């Protein structure tokens, strides 16, 4: 492997006549296109994607979804689990509501040092997008109709102590570094948000992209920044729409709960 990399570096950077001669041919090979007729590929492309997506759906329905349901405390109905199954780590009990959508490219972890099992409580009609991590210190509560965008981090515990000597020794974090996180109903976390321990975000509130939430956020506001601060309250018109949507979502969840 080292020989191959050394040869590639020599061909790319050397002033040797052989390297200089071969360099344009090698670059040309990277963009080589064979003049094939495109019509057969236009016919085959939809067939390929149909078969590919069909196989993915079969695996999702008959493998990933029942496997994940078997690992939660109460198997929810109408779960849409896409692109695999979340990575589960540590001691963690998961309770999941109805009609949730969860990316398989997520991580749910529980703090192993707890005397009791960490608890992740997820309500109805919740969406959790890809590359999100939920690290549960003791308890994380996610209310109904919550939306968590991609690459968010709910950090209920840090995983390491502050003391550098203890950290180098591989010791666990201290109890005062651990805390619950609560996202009340209808909260929306924008892409890349981080929520630290001992934080509660009030109902209907929206957290802007890339924010770091270090303390409680009241209900019915838009907050953003590092650390996150309240930008403005949501207007009555905005809240009216939110409440109507929430009522609609709750109604749908209740309707679905009666469907076998």
TrEMBL record:
<protein>
    <recommendedName>
        <fullName>Acetyltransferase</fullName>
    </recommendedName>
</protein>
<dbReference type="InterPro" id="IPR051159">
    <property type="entry name" value="Hexapeptide_acetyltransf"/>
</dbReference>
<dbReference type="InterPro" id="IPR011004">
    <property type="entry name" value="Trimer_LpxA-like_sf"/>
</dbReference>
<dbReference type="InterPro" id="IPR001451">
    <property type="entry name" value="Hexapep"/>
</dbReference>
<dbReference type="Pfam" id="PF00132">
    <property type="entry name" value="Hexapep"/>
</dbReference>
<dbReference type="Pfam" id="PF14602">
    <property type="entry name" value="Hexapep_2"/>
</dbReference>
